[in-house]
Structure formats: structure tokens, C-alpha cells
Amino acid sequence: MHVRRPETPVIGETPGPADDLPWIENGGTVAPKDARVLSRLFLDRLQELEEGTREYQYARNTLIEMNLSLVHFAARRFRNRGSGDMEDIVQVGTIGLIKAIDRFDLTREVEFTSFAIPYIVGEIKRFFRDTTWAVHVPRRLQELRADLVKSKESLTTTLGRAPTVKELAADLGLTDNQVIEGLVAANGYAAGSLDTPGGEAEADDGAPKYADTVGETDPALELFEDLHTLAPLLRRLDERERALIEMRFGRELTQAEIGRELNVSQMHVSRLLTRTLGKLRSGLLAG
Q: Which end of the chain is less enclosed by CB atoms within 10 A, N or C?
């Protein structure tokens, strides 16, 4: 363990830590057993030092270095999670360690390791909760999903079957609608590939995929939308213009046939159609 008492600094050197704290070159090399003893000393002194001073920063940073082994210990519990790089998990866990250092109170007579681990694990769990959802849902629904999972497991063991919504609601002290909302939101926790085989034969490579059940765009849908938009515009046309549109596009008559029916020339029919369609087009663009 590389520990020595601070010496009088040489001109040009960075001054050492507080006089009553040992100088530790690298807190990460301190053995866990020694780290527990030294942590208590540094935590005690940290509460007396003024925040922002060089001595305070030395004590705090050394505590972080000496206790990083706690972060790695906690992070190993999450190494088999479906997502999350180990380096990211350690960084998140270190945030929990820093919070534990800042909030630790020696008067509680609790070992720092026992106090810090829940902070570290809690921070890592929060990281997975916030980053592993396939679809973003509000925090309260994410927490509700976790409660529902625990309640469902407990009630299934007790009842010997899957619990109903009412039973889940009674167990959690919620309304039926709140439970339903949580169950619906839980669908956003994980996303599956459309190439995944569906149905009961999921292990069969020849089974239909979910993508095979997804419908295509109905070609008549666009026509319906156009007609729905045109309806109020058609009502604004006068009787003759509406009759002209009905003959040309409803009965699908040619301009010559319309001319004979209206006793006008084909050229006049063309001009009337152009003017009427122009009105409709302007109405569509304006809408």
C-alpha cells in the first residue's frame, strides 16, 4: 500500500493534503482491508474540510479511488443484462459511489461498504430502467411495471395461476384502470424483430414471420381520403358544375358524349371541365 505522510511541498509542486491525512499516490492500489480502515479516517476528515478546497478534493477523490472495487463488485451482477456496456455500468455505478460518499454520516455507526452498495446498485438499476425501454414511457409507468412484475410473480405462486387485473389492483392498492395502463405500457419494454417466427411454432424456421401478417397499404385508402376532402368542395359547386363532374367521373362519359347530352360543343365541355376542376384544385390547395 503506497501511503506516506505529506511532506513540506517543494516550490513549484502542488501542495499536499491536510496534515492529518496520509498521502496516497493511487487509491486504486490500496487493498480492500486497508481501504476500509482508511475510508473511515478520510470520511471523518472530509466532514470537517471546507468544500471546494484542495484538501477537500484530495480526500474526496482518494475515497472514490479506494472504493472503486465496490463499484466493480456491484457491476458484475449486471454483466449478463441484454444491453449496457460494462464500462458504462461502472461509470454509472461510480456516480452512486460519489453520492454515498457525500451523504455518509459516521454517527450512524454503519460500515461505509454497507451504506454505499445500495447507492451503487440503485444508480445502475436506474440506468437500465431509463435506457433499456424500446419505447419511451413516463417514469411512473416504468416504476409501475416493476411493481406489477413483482406482484404478478408473488400472486402466481400463491394462487397457482396468473392473477387477474382485479387481483393485481387489490394487491398493489391501485384501480383496475391504473393496472391496465401499466400492463399496456409494459409492452414498450422490449421490441421484437418483424423477422421473428410467429405463432406457436416459434422454433420452426419455416414458420410464418410477424412481417408476413402485416398488411399492405390499401390502394383505395388514398381515394377515400381524396373523396372525403372533396365532399365539402363539391357541395359549393352549382348544379350544372356538379352534373358535369358526375357525368365525367361518375358515369365516365367522354367529352363528346357530355356535349351531346347538354347540347353544347365538345370544346365548350372542355372549358367547363377545366374551370370546374380548377375550382376544386384551388379548394384542395387552400385546405
A: C
C-alpha to C-alpha distance for 171 and 158, rounded to whole angstroms: 12
Grid cell 447507492 in the structure block, residue: 119
pLDDT(275) > 80 = yes
CB atoms within 10 A of CB 174: 19
Taking CA atoms, 65 is separated from 38, 45, 59, 118, 192, in Å, by 12, 16, 10, 18, 41
Do 155 and 163 contact (CB within 8 A), yes or no? yes
Long-range CB pairs of 163-169 (<8 Å, 24+ gap) are none
Can you tell me the distance from the alpha carbon of 172 to that of 40, in angstroms, rounded to the nearest whole number? 41
- Using DSSP's 3-state secondary structure scheme, residue 21 falls into coil
Phi, psi for 190 (deg, rounded to 5): -135, 145
182 in Cβ contact with 171 (< 8 Å): no
pTM score: 0.44
User: How do residues 45-60 score in pLDDT, each as one tens digit?
Assistant: 888 888 888 999 999 9
Residue 8, C-alpha cell as written in the block: 513540506
The type of residue at 142 is: Q
| CA 124 – CA 74 distance, rounded (Å) | 9
HSE-up (13 A, CA, CB side) for residue 42: 27
Burial (CB count within 10 angstroms: exposed 0-12, middle 13-18, buried 19+), residue 217: exposed
Nearest to 63, CA basis, from 130, 129, 109, 17: 17
| Measured distance CA(34)–CA(27) in Å, rounded | 10
Q: pLDDT tens across 84-136, in order? A: 578 888 888 999 999 999 988 888 778 888 899 999 998 888 887 766 554 55
Q: How confident is the model at residue 1 (pLDDT cuts 50, 70, 90)?
A: very low
